[in-house]
Amino acid sequence: MIEVPPSLLRQFTDACHRVADEGLVRCSSGNLSWRIDDKHMLVSASRTWLQNITEEGVAVCRIEDASVINDRTPTVEVRFHSGILRERPEANVVLHFQTPCATTFACMERQPNFFVTPEVPYYIGDIGYVSYFKPGSMELAAAVTDAMRTHNLILMRNHGGVTAGKDFNEVIQNAAFFELACEILLRGGHNVQPLTEDAVRDLNA
């Protein structure tokens, strides 16, 4: 049984509160994970509200197989959290978010060009997309893990978004910038013009 220092638990719960304060989740929607060493991660527990999570709402799991090693039940999406952390060794944090505008696009058949502000191509890159699978299923975990090998943010059909990054700031920023782009697209409709290919190349360079 790994002994997690109280300071790490506080950092994690503080980050969960920040996610909620930014409006990236509602009630018990969404979840967060954090790699704390080569073998273990902290994950928000099942049905936990990130806005008021305490140490009692934190599960300690193995990255290798998503198995829990304390007496908490992790989020049902624990498998794609562990899968992403296994496949992306440079990433330490995974966030499943459900913002209104991004989730609206997750419910649409066709996806637009999300490169409407410089922040999306510069910080996030191309957006991935995963078909609908039952939440918590092995199929969803496999599809999300596979898509996140080559993307920093994906949409899950009728479900919401997933993003990964090196730290809490990066995943919160990714989700917030993407939500901004989605809001612009919904508000502006066909009048919104994405960045040109030349502009995107300049940003990526």
Q: Mind explaining what this structure looks like?
A:
The chain is of the alpha+beta class and about 200 residues long. The protein has one domain: Class II aldolase/adducin N-terminal domain (L-fuculose-1-phosphate Aldolase, 3-Layer(aba) Sandwich). Helix content is about 40%, strand content about 15%. The chain contains seven helices and seven strands; from the N terminus they run αβββαβααβαββαα. The chain has helices at about 5-20, 80-85, 100-105, 120-125, 140-145, 170-190, 195-205, and strands at about 30-35, 40-45, 60, 95, 130, 155, 160-165. It has a seven-stranded mixed sheet, sandwiched between helices. Strand 5 (about 130), helix 5 (about 140-145) and strand 6 (about 155) form a beta-alpha-beta unit. Helix 3 (about 100-105) packs across helix 6. The chain is globular and about 55 Å long. About 40% of the residues are buried. The mean pLDDT is about 95.
Give a quick set of tags describing it.
205 residues, 7 helices, 7 strands
Task: Give a brief rundown of this model.
The protein is α+β, with helices and mostly antiparallel strands and 205 residues long. It has seven helices and seven strands; from the N terminus they run αβββαβααβαββαα. The model has no long low-confidence stretch (mean pLDDT 97).
Low-confidence stretches: none
Work out the radius of gyration: 17 Å
CATH level 4 superfamily:
Class II aldolase/adducin N-terminal domain
What would CATH call the class? Alpha Beta
- The percent range for strand residues is 15-25%
**Secondary-structure arrangement, i.e. CATH architecture:** 3-Layer(aba) Sandwich
The number of strands is 7
H/E element string? Answer: HEEEHEHHEHEEHH
CATH topology: L-fuculose-1-phosphate Aldolase
Q: What multimeric state do the chains show?
A: single chain
Class of secondary structure makeup: alpha+beta
Mean pLDDT: 97
**Which range best describes the helical content: under 10%, 10-25%, 25-40%, 40-55%, 55-70% or over 70%?**
25-40%
Major sheet strand order: 3-2-1-4-7-6-5
How far apart are the termini?
46 Å
Identify the overall geometry: globular
